[in-house]
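ok so I'm stuck.
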Amino acid sequence: MIAYNKGWLKNMYLQEQAREARANNCICKEDYQYLVENHPVGFQTHNIYWRIGHALLTLLVLSFSSGLFSWVFTLFNNFSFILIGSGIVYYGLLELIVIKRMNHYNSGTDNMVALLSVSCLIGGFFSIFYTYDNPHWLPIAFFTFIICLLMAIRLVDSILSMAAAFSWLAFVLLAYLKLGSFATATAPFVLMIASLVIYIMANKSRYSRSLLLFRNCNLYVAGLALVCLYLAGNYYVVSELGRVLMDGGDNRAGGLPMGWFFWGWTILIPLAYIGLGIAKKDIQLIRIGLVLVAVAVGTYRYYYSILSPDKALILAGFLLVLVGGGLLMYLKMPKGGFTIVDAPIFKEENEIEELLSGQVIQKTVGGDHPNEQQESGNSW
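replied:
not stuck anymore, here's the structure
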């Protein structure tokens, strides 16, 4: 199901956990070195600067080679076929050469080839279903979802996972709008429900041992679902979306039906995210809630003027510095389970302790067999 070496992916996860545990003095240096040496990772991966360079170089090389693909596929005199054929060729290049032979993983090269493949495939289906007079957005959203989902599963890609989730929400909205005027009036509530379902599923899957390799994908999808859940009820978004769908007038005067509900959603949901994040000690909820507070303030400022923009920004910046600085000083020592110091949270799995126990037994009986874990990974 996954194109990359699963054993190396699991070893990479264990090395990340070991580094975090070592940084917080949860394991000694000898145990950390033993874990790293006996759980090797053979991927070619680089830091962010090398990834950008590799991605740009790959784009440059493929830009020249794509001319040959275009010349071959132009024999069929079909632009959609040219794009879909190019996407298939790019995917074959990614699967057979970049991943299998060169062992690239998040090196910039595989990311760029995957991006080009997905873009060509989606563009091909877009050119099939889109016409200026009657664009068929529903099948476009459906095929975008299918392509992004399959590629995200195959490549364990967080960006493609978010694209799949977003295209699924678009498909649900477009399909629901086919039901008529009642569906148009209640579309925000359907988006809220769909976003909430995605968040619950993704958040639950974050801690599933069977989906361990997709933990980052589920993390980003959960964050996207939280943002979409808020935007589905944001007063400005609902007002503008309703104006587009119903060809209405300006809603800035407060003419939006159930405006009190959407104003309450706009103001209270960011605060609810922050409160729930503090209660559950979930940093993702807190960070998204803080960002959405600024969105809520901007939404209110768009309709009602209290302070001038410069005074509002100065006041907001002063409050953020004051509150943030105060919390940094206060949480240098843990208070009620909260601290500014990064601490490893292994949740229900406690992988490092389990693995160290196994390694101690192996060293005691002399049963080290690091090569056996090269392909199959660790005991999970």
